[in-house]
Amino acid sequence: MPAESGQEPMADGPVAAPFMRLSSKLRDDLYEEVRHDKTWHQRLTWSRGEWTPGSLTSLASRFERSLRWNKVKPEKENFDSPRPTIQSQSICREHLTGTAPEFLSEETLRILTEAVGSAQIKEAVIDMECWERTFLNSEGCSVTTQGKWFDFYASYNTGAALVRWRDGTSTQEEVSRLARPPLPILGRGVTWSEPRTIDTVRYDLVLLSPTASSVVIHELIGHGCEHFREKIVGLRVGPEELRVVAFPKNGSGFDDEGTPSEEIVLVENGIVRHAVRDRATGGMAPFSGLTKVASHGVKPGSRCTHLKAEGESSQEGVTGVPAERTVWIEHFSAANYHSGRAFFRSGLAWVGSREELLYPLMPFTMSIDIYELASLLWHLDGQTERARSGLCNKDGEFLPTFNFAPKIALRPVVSIRP
Q: I need a surface site. Which of 3, 184, 292, 321 has the fewest CB within 10 A?
C-alpha cells in the first residue's frame, strides 16, 4: 500500500489544530493521539455472466485518545506492570460527499471478467475499499497513509458440491489472480463424488495447504503472542526448523500508534522468542510496532495479521501413509481463538493428497491447544507460499490478513468432530 511518513508535526489541517489544543496540557507521563480516517466502499456482484455494482458508501471519522502511565517504576519489570489508564477517548463519524477514487480501471475489470468466466465461477462478490489515514501523536510522529483493499469471495460448482473460497489483495493488478480456483485438481477432469462425513478414527495424517497452515499459525502463534504475551515466551510450538516472523503492514515505517515498526521474530528454532505489546498493554516494556486498528476503529492493539512461517523438517513418518488414511485440508471456512485453544471449521477438505482426491468431506471442526501444537506439528515441507487472504475479527474490528506459509503435516488430531 502506498504510504508517506515524516517526523515533523503537521503545521495545519483538520488534525493538527485540535491536537495542538490537546498538547497544551501535555505532561511527561501523558500520551495523546489523533487519527483521521476516510473510506469509500462499493460491492461488485457477479451473477449470470455480468458484474452488478452496488451503492457507494463513504465515511469519515476522527478518533482521539489520551493515556497516562504510572511513573513509579516497579521493582521487577515484567509485561503485566503497570498498564496505563485511559484518560479520554472519543470518536466522531460523518458521511463523506464528493467524488470517490477509482476502484478498478476498465482494463482491470475486463481482465477480471475473462478470468471469472474461464474459471466457471458461479457466483462472486468483490468488496472494494479505498482508504486514507492521517495520524499524529504527542511524540511528534505525523504519518499519512492511503491504499485500497479488494476482498474476493466466490463459489465454483464441481457438479457434486459448491467449492467456496476467499482471498484479497491491496493492488488492482492482482485482482484477476483472486479468481483462480484454490485447487490444482479443478478443471482436470476429476470426478467429484458426494461429500462424506469424516471418520474421526481412521486417519493417520492431516495435511494442510499453505493457506490452511497460515490460519493455524495465525490463530495459535499470532493470537497466542498477543494474548499470553510474555507468558508464552520460551514455549515450544513446533519442530526445530520452524521460524515465524511478524512484519509491518505497509511501508510507512510506523504502526497505528506511531511506534516505529520492523520485523519481529516470534518463533525461532520452534520456540517462541518474543511476545507483542502495544501502548495499552505494554506496561513499561518496549512496544512492538505491530499495533493496528481498523478504519474508524476504536481499539488499537497488537495484531499479528502479517506473518511469514518457514522451515523444512524431516519427512520421516509422513511419506508412505496411504491416501485413504490421509486428510487434506485446502482451507478453513472459519477459525476462532479463545484462551490458548483455536477451533477450525473446514471449508474444503477431502480424503487423499493434494494431487489425488478420493472423496470430498463434509465440513468438520478441529481444535488445537497452543500447548499441544509442538507435539502435533509434524512436518514442514520447506516451500513457503503466499496464502490466500482472509479477514481477522478481534474485538469486533476486522483487518485483512497477509501471510506466507509452507504446507505442514499434523499428527492425528484428537479433537476432531463432524
A: 184
- Model-level pTM greater than 0.85? yes
Using DSSP's 3-state secondary structure scheme, residue 222 falls into helix
Q: What distance in Å separates the CA atoms of residue 235 and residue 382, rounded to the nearest whole number?
A: 22
DSSP state of 105: -
Q: Could you tell me where the DSSP H helices lie in 126-283?
A: 210-216, 223-227
CA 52, CA 46: separation in Å to the nearest integer?
6
Per-residue pLDDT tens digits for 14-66: 333 333 334 334 445 788 999 999 999 999 999 888 899 999 999 999 999 99
Q: Look at residues 116, 153, 164 and name the one whose alpha carbon lies nearest to residue 391.
A: 153
Q: pLDDT band for position 167 (50/70/90)?
A: very high
Which of 63, 81, 70 has the alpha carbon at shortest distance from 27?
70
Residue carrying C-alpha cell 517462541: 272
Q: How far is CA 308 from CA 182, 261, 292, 380, 406, in A?
A: 20, 16, 17, 13, 9
Least confident of 231-245, 271-285, 382-396: 271-285
Query: Pick from 335, 49, 45, 331: which is nearest to 182 by CA?
Result: 331
Give pLDDT tens digits for 291-320: 999 999 998 999 999 999 999 987 776 777
- What length does the chain have? 418
Average pLDDT estimate for 344-369: 87
Does residue 257 contact residue 277 with C-beta atoms inside 8 Å? Answer: no
**Would you give the DSSP letter of residue 159?**
S
Residues contacting 257, CB < 8 A, separation 6+: 33, 137, 278, 279, 287, 291, 300
SS percent in the chain: helix, strand, coil, step 5: 15, 40, 45
Query: How far is residue 194's CA from residue 57's CA, in Å, rounded to a whole number?
Result: 41
What is the C-alpha separation between 143 and 160, in angstroms, rounded? 51
